[in-house]
Structures are given as structure tokens and as C-alpha cells.
Design brief:
- 33% of the residues lie in helices and 20% in strands.
- By secondary structure, the protein is an alpha/beta fold.
- Helix 2 links the parallel strand 6 and strand 7 (113-116).
- Helix 6 (197-203) runs antiparallel to helix 7 and helix 7 (207-232) runs parallel beside helix 13.
- It starts with a helix and ends with a strand.
- The relative contact order is 0.11.
């Protein structure tokens, strides 16, 4: 069996080396697709292929990756710029995150997911069932995917998340399978990240479907933002504090993060709104209490087999009862072990904004929150 796997590996490497093409390096003129919100994505249409540029979010002015999307039924154009060629639509993909599994499924392409990484963190029943019956292959860790499993899948593309100073993707690079770097999480606005679904829709041959979904997301998001703005003029300004202490630190969303900006879009005050970080801030408990102890509402995420209560929160940290939102029973928890928060909200930020607006402005009669549930005694 071991010798067979080695033979397969060498065969795949040989075929990839013979069939892989990265273009001539010549610049080709095309029409740039106008994107409204995405800052790290550029899409240029050419005759016979589409060029996609991912800006390096950690090095201003540099390119993280260039892709050349060529329809499978077409011959490769003679004049291709330098870049990674991806034949579309992708029929077999290995995806390393639950976020992108959820997006692909929402576009109606879940059958194209032939493999996943970090299966235990993907709370999608059809993925878990697929891994059990063998229709979806567990390819190991997203940080170090199994080369042999990816060979078994015969994937058209690998969807992996890039990280600053990560050192690359290891041995899977040598397979020659195109790696789609899912850098959408580095966008600085919720709609900016969601707009990346246009790129992913092109990859799976459902561009019109992706465009339609994005238009719905955008319309609903902007409508909720306007409703919140109108409602906020009729009552005193309210405020939000996010998440809770983990270990010795409390991670709060930075002021330029998508959640930080979303709180502003919900017309609520946020203690770190002036902060310039697009990620999270690691703070001591005392700093959060000092700056946001008087917040009107407390929203936090957790992963547990049982719902959190006010009593269980106090057993975690006795200082929580110093927060106004705790004392006033205005705490809302999202159990990521039983909800699809991480699978849904990155590309459907309107759903998360709706939760914020629903709680902040019950007079709008938007129904019950979808993810953040009001804590019981």
C-alpha cells in the first residue's frame, strides 16, 4: 500500500509538472469589474479568461496571488499573463474552513466539496455525514493538509487561508494543484468580505447566482442600517460590549474590524470604535471593565454543550457582575457549538447585523435574534 501511494504521488507530480501552465508573463488588456466594497480583490475580464488579483493585505502595493480562470471547455489562450491557471468550473475542491464550506453550499455547489480540513470544526450536518459515508474526505489539518488524501480526492483546487509570516503551505504546494488563498477575512468591511463571493462564484461556475446572493445581502444590510439610523433618533444612544474573557485575556473586536464597524452600522456606541486594528485586541479584564462596564448590552460567543446562564458566567469570573449589562440582565450569548454562526455570517453579514438591530430596537418588530440568545437566569 505504501509503495502504491508513493507511485501515485510521483505520477501526480509528473502530470502536474507537464500540464501546469503559469502564462507567458505578457500583460494583456481587459475590462475591470467594478467592485463596490472589496479592497483586496481585483477582477479583470479578458477574451478567453478572467484575471483575478489578490492584494497582499500585509504588504501595501504588493500582490498576494494572481489567478487566471479559464473555462474547462476552452483551449488555453496563447497569450496568458503570468499567474496560476484554474480551469472552471471547479468540480472537486478541498476546503479548509467551515466559512467557505457554508458559502459554497449557499451557492448550490456543495457537491463540488470533495474534501475538507479540520472536520471537527465544521458544524454543517451534510459535511459531517459526507465524512462518515466517504463522499467527503477528511484531509487533516488546514495548517498541514494530508498530501495522500488530496491525491485520493484528485482535487481541482485547494482553498486555504493565508496568514502573515506563516511560511507557506508545505508539501501540498508541490502537488501543482492550484491553491486558492482565501484572504477575504482581511477585508475591512462586512460587505467588502461578502463581495468576495463574486470571485468564488466564478470559480464554481455560478457567477450569476453569486451576484444575486450578494445583491440580496447588500440590500438587506443597507436596509437594516437605515432602519437602525431612523430608530436611533427616537431614543437615547445605546452601547455594546463584545465577547468575554478567555483564559487570562479578553479579546474584543478592533475598531476597524468587520464586527466593530457593524456595531457602528447598528447605530450603537462601541468603546473601541476609534481603534485602528482590523483584528482583535487582547486586553486584561480590568481594562474592558473600565472602558465598557457601562455598556447597555453584552453580546458574546462561546462553545459549550450546555447554554450559558448568568450563574455559570459568575462561576467563570466573579467580576462579570460589575458590568451594567449583566446586572440589568441584558446579556446575549451565541453558542457556536449548536449554531452556524461562523458558517453563515462572514458572507451574510446582514444576518448578524439583524441580530444587533433586533436587540437594540425591539420597536422595529424584526422578530427574535437568530444567533445571540437572551440569557436565562
Amino acid at each position: 500500500m505504501k509503495n502504491k501511494s508513493i507511485l501515485i504521488l510521483f505520477t501526480v507530480l509528473f502530470l502536474c509538472a507537464c500540464g501546469r501552465r503559469t502564462g507567458t508573463g505578457k500583460d494583456v488588456q481587459g475590462d475591470t469589474l467594478q467592485l463596490k466594497y472589496a479592497e483586496h480583490l481585483t477582477i479583470i475580464r479578458h477574451q478567453g479568461f478572467t484575471e483575478v488579483l489578490l492584494a497582499d493585505p500585509w504588504n501595501t502595493g504588493k500582490t498576494l496571488h494572481k489567478y487566471l480562470l479559464v473555462p474547462s471547455e476552452s483551449e488555453l489562450p496563447r497569450q496568458l499573463p503570468q499567474g496560476s491557471v484554474i480551469r472552471t468550473p471547479i468540480r472537486k475542491a478541498v476546503i479548509a474552513t467551515s466559512v467557505h464550506c457554508g458559502l459554497v453550499a449557499s451557492m448550490g455547489c456543495q457537491k463540488a466539496i470533495a474534501g475538507v480540513c479540520d472536520q471537527q470544526y465544521i458544524h454543517l450536518p451534510w459535511v459531517q455525514e459526507g465524512c462518515k459515508n466517504g463522499t467527503v474526505i477528511d484531509c487533516g489539518s488546514g495548517l498541514a493538509p494530508s498530501v495522500e488524501k488530496i491525491i485520493d480526492v484528485n482535487a481541482d483546487a485547494l482553498f486555504l487561508s493565508p496568514f502573515q509570516n506563516s511560511g507557506g503551505y508545505g508539501p501540498v504546494v508541490e502537488l501543482g494543484v492550484p491553491i486558492v488563498e482565501t484572504a477575504d477575512y482581511m477585508e475591512t468591511s462586512a460587505l467588502g468580505r461578502a463581495e468576495w463571493m463574486k470571485f468564488y462564484g466564478m470559480l464554481f461556475g455560478v457567477e450569476e447566482k453569486a451576484d444575486s446572493i450578494f445583491q440580496e445581502v447588500e440590500s438587506d444590510y443597507l436596509s437594516l442600517k437605515e432602519k437602525a439610523a431612523t430608530a436611533s433618533r427616537q431614543k437615547p444612544r445605546q452601547s455594546i460590549v463584545m465577547d468575554k474573557q478567555t483564559g487570562s485575556v479578553w479579546y474584543v473586536p478592533g475598531g476597524k474590524s468587520t464586527i466593530g464597524k457593524m456595531i457602528t452600522d447598528a447605530q450603537a456606541d462601541y468603546a473601541w470604535s476609534a481603534d485602528d486594528h482590523s483584528g482583535s485586541l487582547a486586553l486584561p479584564f480590568e481594562s474592558v471593565l473600565e472602558k465598557a462596564g457601562n455598556a447597555s448590552f453584552w453580546f458574546f460567543r462561546y462553545n459549550a454543550p450546555q447554554p450559558v446562564t448568568y450563574a455559570s458566567l459568575l462561576s467563570e469570573h466573579h467580576g462579570y457582575d460589575h458590568f451594567d449589562a449583566f446586572r440589568n440582565k441584558k446579556a446575549y450569548g451565541c453558542n457556536t457549538a449548536t449554531s452556524t454562526f461562523y458558517e453563515d455570517t462572514p458572507f451574510h453579514p446582514n444576518l448578524l447585523l439583524r441580530d444587533f438591530v433586533t436587540v437594540l430596537y425591539p420597536e422595529l418588530s424584526l422578530g427574535e435574534p437568530r444567533y445571540f440568545i437572551h440569557l436565562q437566569q
